[in-house]
Amino acid sequence: QVQLVESGGGLVQAGGSLRLTCAASGRTFSNYAMAWFRQGPGKEREFVVSISWSGRITRYADSVKGRFTISRDNARDMVYLQMNSLKFEDTAVYYCAATRLAVARHSVFDQSADYGYWGQGTQVTVSS
């Protein structure tokens, strides 16, 4: 059974940092693109960042460019999201996602429909 488990969320002041972790199990994710999405209060789920299975290609939403960094460790089936200079508007539940099928080495995707596996989410709250 495929499982994605996020951790690392919490309460932080504006300008602070958090590091989210996504642990994958049930299959090897080394041939699958991964991503983080988020859903703020009263908002629809939105794309944050994607990383190719090679780890060499990333795509960021404009709202987080220069502040967030995604990385992955295929040997450990882990994905990380380093979030710096957090803003109040970053407050959301953050979800880890993996593509349903194996993809090309350097492919990235920014649509939720491209992802077939989702974690339960971890809450990030930024106080102003």
Account of the 3D structure:
By secondary structure, this protein is mostly beta strands. The chain contains no helices and eleven strands. It has strands at 3-7, 10-13, 18-25, 34-39, 46-51, 58-60, 68-73, 78-83, 92-99, 115-118, 122-127. The strands form two sheets. Strands 2, 4, 5, 6, 9, 10 and 11 form a seven-stranded mixed β-sheet that branches. The chain has a four-stranded antiparallel β-sheet with strand order 1-3-8-7, with no helix packed on it. Strand 4 (34-39) and strand 5 form a beta hairpin. The protein is globular and about 40 Å long. It starts with a strand and ends with a strand. The mean pLDDT is 95.
Q: In percent, how much strand structure appears in the residues? A: over 45%
Low-confidence parts: none
Mean pLDDT: 95
Overall shape: it is globular
Describe the largest sheet. 7 strands, mixed
- Counting H and I runs of at least 4 residues, what is the number of helices? 0
SS-based structural class? mainly beta
Distance between the termini: 40 Å
Give the tally of β-strands. Answer: 11
Order of helices and strands: EEEEEEEEEEE
| Rg value | 14 Å
Query: What's the helical proportion of residues?
Result: under 10%
